Amino acid sequence: MDKTDKLNLFYLLSFLALLLWSGIRPYDRFTWFLEVLPALMGLAALAITYRRFRLTRLVYLLIWIHAIILLVGGHYTYARVPLFDWLSQALDLGRNNYDKLGHLAQGFIPAIVTREVLLRNRVVTRRGWLAFLVVCVCLAVSAFYELIEWWTAVLTGTGAEDFLGTQGYVWDTQSDMALCLLGSLLALAFLSRLHDRQMAALP
Predict the structure, then answer these.
(1) Whole-Å CA distances, 37 to 41, 67, 74
(2) pLDDT > 70 fraction of the chain, expressed in percent and rounded
(3) Which residues have a Cβ under 8 Å from the Cβ of 18 and sit 6 or more positions away?
(4) Alpha helix (H) residue ranges in 50-171
(5) Whether residue 5 has pLDDT greater than 70
(6) What whole-number distance in Å separates Cα of residue 86 and Cα of residue 84?
(7) Which of 112, 149, 179, 195 is 20 to 30 A from 187 in CA distance terms?
(8) How many CB atoms within 10 Å of residue 101?
C-alpha cells in the first residue's frame, strides 16, 4: 500500500466514522437522508472507479472536505449548524449561513473534479475552452440541485422545509447559484497550477 492509498484509506475511515455520527439522532431523519445521499453516491462512484481511474490527491482531499460539509449539514440541517448559529449572532447576520458555505463548495470542489475528468479523458484539448466548460458544468449541477429541492418541496410539502434551507430569504436560490459560480472561479484561479503538477505526476 503506497502513501496515496494510505491517505485515501484515512479519508474513507474518517468519512465512515463521521457518517455514523451524522446518522445518530439527527435533527430530522428525512432531511438527513436527502443531505447525505450525494456523499454516499460520490463514495460509490469513487469505489467503482478507484482501480481504473485513480484521481489526484488534490481531488480526493477536496471530495473528502465536501463530504464533511454534507454530513455535518445533514446531522444538524443547514439552518441549525451550531458554529454558524454563533457566527450569525456574533456578526448580526440575521440567518445561519452554513448553506452558503455548502453552495460555495458546490462550485469549488466539482470545478477541480470536472477539470481533471475533462483533461485526462482528452474531452478538451484546447485550454481556452477548459475554464468555460468547467464553470458551465458546475452551474448546471447547481441549477439541477435547485430543481431537485423544488421537486422535493412539491412532493413532500412542508417536509422539505429543512432541506430547502431558505430561512425566509427570497433570493436564496439565486444566491446559491451565484456562490457556486464564485466557488468554481476561485478554484480555477488558485488551484489550477497545483492540479496540473499533480496530474503530471500520475503514473
Answers:
(1) 6, 10, 9
(2) 93
(3) 67, 68, 71, 72
(4) 57-76, 82-91, 98-120, 127-156, 161-164
(5) yes
(6) 5
(7) 149
(8) 17
Sign of CA dihedral 144, 33, 48, 12: positive
Q: Report the pLDDT value the prediction gives residue 71, as an integer from 0 to 100.
A: 98
Query: Residue 155 is placed in which grid cell?
Result: 412532493
Are the C-beta atoms of residues 163 and 99 closer than 8 Å to each other? no
Distance of CA 39 to the CA centre of its chain: 8
Q: What is the CA radius of gyration of the chain?
A: 18
Angstrom distance (rounded) from CA 111 to CA 42: 15
State the first-to-last Cα distance of the chain, in angstroms, to the nearest integer: 15
CB 199 within 8 A of CB 119: yes
* Stretch 35-61: mean pLDDT: 96
All structural domains of the chain with their residue ranges: 3-200
Dihedrals phi, psi of 157, to nearest 5 degrees = 70, -130
**In Å, what is the CA distance from 17 to each residue of 10, 22, 32, 67, 142?**
10, 9, 16, 12, 28
C-alpha cell, 145: 440541485
Q: Average the pLDDT over each of 13-17, 126-130, 141-145 and give the range with the smallest value.
A: 126-130
| CA gap 10, 114 in Å, rounded | 23
Burial bucket for residue 32 (CB in 10 Å: 0-12, 13-18, 19+): buried
- Spatial separation of the C-alpha atoms in residues 140 and 138, rounded to whole Å: 5
Cα–Cα distance, 41 to 38 (Å, whole number): 5
Placement of cell 496515496 in the chain: 4
